[in-house]
Amino acid sequence: MGRSTQLFLLLLLFIQCLVIALTANGATNEDYLLLLSLKDELKNTPDWKGADPCDNWVGIVCTNSRVTSIIFTSMNLTGKLSSEIGQFSELQTLNLIGCSFSGSIPDTIGNLQRLTILSLTNNSFSGSIPASIGHLSELYWLDLAENQLDGPIPVSNGNTPGLDMLLHAKHFHLDHNKLSGNILSKLFSSKMVLKHVLLNSNNLIGNIPDTLGLVQTLEVMFLSNNNLTGPIPNLTGMNFLNYVDMSNNSFDVSEIPQWFSPTLESLTTLMMENTRLRGQVPVSLFNLANLQTVILRNNQLNGTIDVGTTYSNQLQLIDLQNNSIVSFVETARGYNKTLILMDNPFCQNNYKIYCMVPQSKGNSTYSTLPNNCVPKDCNFGQVSSPNCKCAYPYTGTLVFRAPSFSDLGNSSYYIHLQESLMNYSQSQKLPVDSVSLSNPIKDSSENLEISLQVFPSGQDQESKESKNPLSIGIIIGAAAGGTVLLLLVLVAGVYAFRQKRRAERASDQLNPFARWDPNSGSGGVPQLKGARCFSFEELKKYTNKFSEANFIGSGGYGKVYLGTLPTGKLIAIKRAQTESMQGGIEFKTEIELLSRVHHKNLVSLIGFCFDQGEEMLVYEYVPNGTLKDSLSGKSGISLDWMRRLKLALGAARGLAYLHELANPPIIHRDIKSTNILLDEHLNAKVSDFGLSKPMGDDNKGHISTQVKGTMGYMDPEYYMSQQLTEKSDVYSFGVLMLELITARMPIERGKYIVRVVQMAMDKTKVLYNLQEILDPAIGLQTSLKGLEKFVDLVMRCVEESGANRPAMGDVVKEIENIMQLAGLNPNTESTSTSASYEEVSKGSSGHPYSNEGFEYSGIFPISKIDPH
């Protein structure tokens, strides 16, 4: 046997011994096989490698060679949860939040006797809640919210377990499901230590049991949006209760409960909208020291509202809309926060500020400040951390249910949270340099969302060491010491090369533009047609450093700024806030799609910015606002019948281009009056392609996709089937046409405009008997030639079945025919400016990106992209 062969066998023996040593400290074979069985039931699973789950398997945490945590948060796993999950005897945490699991929750989950956290939120689990969960005596956190679970909430009965047995649990999150039946009194008892009970947005019926008042530890109670009846429960003595929401139930008509008084000393938020309350609101309610929000709208409250002189300094909002209140006592101290008394008798002849809904001020802004240092100008894709170090941060969104405060601009909450996160990282010895919080908002469910950036430590140091020639020399010198060491160095080199390739692939995922030289003229990424790549510094210069003077609007995507190119051309820059950012691949895909769209009736994408951790889209600036602005009178632009026909034709031509001439064809998916902009000549331009979907060769006839769009405009067939076609846009356009002639929102005071018109129509009468519904500004005293044919076309567009609706190309031809009937040439371009149609009142806003416009429409592309 030669010497080289001996050395090679010695190396193999060394490696084998090393593997044995590692395996001895790894997961048991039983847990390994169980994980493989779990993986077989799923799709989109992590790329688990190696025979030891405890050795860096994504989502798996071990203690003493046993799997103790399975955490698959937001991994987009699909499939069913295997019944073998119940065999992980040492499992303490099961977290599947934000995946796409379906099917039932297996009954075997009740075998996990060590389980303390069970979080299955935001999946598609169906069936009933397993009663076996009652066996989990150590469970602290039960979160089954935002699924499709049905049936009653299980309670124990004889040998059958139930949730009432969870005496150590502090969180019951069962909201946003399809749970039904009564809330049985046995569910709650004085032995419980519950803090959160979230049962809102289900189909629960009957009384709220009196036993709920026995849970004296309760802090948050969400029972809204059910079918609950009977008396309002007595909450007297619940001294820790800070958030109560019983809105939208059918309780017995009752006077204001006695517990509307200083007995609830911790109360910050009281929401009892549409609960059949009556009587006079006691002044003592507003004296609660911690009270911040009171929402009692849509009830039968009457008498006088007196906030008093000793109301809480934290009280931010009192909403008493749509009651029977007849007077308001104005005290010397005066209440200077938000009070809404609109739709009360008091406001019939009163025009004070609290007799209207105040304009939204948008979300409060907050961003972590630098730690006594000067932020750095970082390389492409990197971000300056609070410690002023350039790094690639891990980003995400923190979601807090039922926050106990209403003032999102109060920085003390976030500073405390930031300190807590850092203290936890240090206690766990995690490689975290710093964390940054920004952009707190409340979603439609009143959850608090905060953008999070986690900056890893040691990136700069590792970068320097990798370039240190001395380190390289030491490695080479050591390698020359012997054959075995040389082999080890070669193995290390191969490993390092693979790690580098992996890092490059990860970098390409984060920044698909990194290898693209915009000046090279090459066909690299992205595949752009007429759109330009701007640097962050360029856009910073064009917007005067994103100054407040250039700020022209905001929404779910972020903020919009007016910019001026060196040529003098005006541009609108949509700057994404952190939580609205897509991945680099998705952002690249979107701008490639938008860059292909070129038509005079479509808003043009001029370029984009993907630089210094920013995602921005640069559009042409359209000066005369949205169609919604003009129809509502906000812009001061008056639209007669002829002008409305031209606007309908322009929007239809833009949409027909997307369906029939774009390559690939595009379904807009969010046609509405706030997405139709008016240029300087009042020509229509379709905007906001944030929800748009391309129809590729693989999409024959339809796309199966998650439902997106705006209620009122949305095609009911698409909503029910989740199958998107071009005819879904046709339906939305039909609703838009009705809005054009009525100036009414699609859904107004609970009435749907399509249904309103269908009920009022009488084809045997002049103008189909629609005079009472038509917008008076359309010019009812003049001839409305072609209006009946226009309405006929609308009714075809909003047919229940998409197969019965016309194609957009046919819609264009019919509108052209109607214009000819009305004496207009459909092929003549408008040369009139908006000045010809303006009746501008002082203070009106004429640009399409005003706060009010965005609040109504929510039009920010990236935040609504459906990547699937």
Describe this structure in words.
There is one protein chain. The chain has 868 residues and is α/β, with parallel strands linked by helices. Among the domains are: 383-460, Alpha-Beta Plaits; 532-620, Phosphorylase Kinase, domain 1 (2-Layer Sandwich); 627-850 and 858-864, Transferase(Phosphotransferase), domain 1. It has 16 helices and 44 strands. The strands form 10 sheets. Strands 2-3-5-7-9-11-13-15-17-19-21-23-25 form a 13-stranded mixed β-sheet, with no helix packed on it. It has an 8-stranded mixed β-sheet with strand order 1-4-6-8-10-12-14-16. Strand 43 and strand 44 form a beta hairpin. Helix 10 packs antiparallel against helix 12 (726-742). The longest helix is centred in the middle third of the chain and has 28 residues, at 483-510. The chain starts with a helix and ends in an 11-residue tail after the last helix. Mean pLDDT is 78; it is low at 1-27, 461-512, 515-525 and 833-868. GO terms for molecular function: ATP binding; protein serine/threonine kinase activity. Pfam families: LRR_1, LRRNT_2, PK_Tyr_Ser-Thr. Residues 546-819 form the Protein kinase domain.
Beta-strand portion reads 15-25%
- Shape estimate: globular
Q: Average pLDDT value?
A: 78
Q: Note the total helix count.
A: 16
The Cα radius of gyration reads 31 Å
The chain-level structural class is alpha/beta
- Architecture of the domain at 627-850 and 858-864, CATH level 2? Orthogonal Bundle
First-residue to last-residue Cα separation: 60 Å
Main sheet overview: 13 strands, mixed
Tell me the name of the CATH class of the domain at 627-850 and 858-864. Mainly Alpha
Number of strands: 44
Helix content: 10-25%
The side-by-side strand order for the widest beta sheet comes to 2-3-5-7-9-11-13-15-17-19-21-23-25
Low-confidence stretches: 1-27, 461-512, 515-525, 833-868
Please identify which CATH superfamily of the domain at 627-850 and 858-864 we are dealing with.
Transferase(Phosphotransferase) domain 1
Per the CATH scheme, the topology name of the domain at 627-850 and 858-864 is Transferase(Phosphotransferase), domain 1
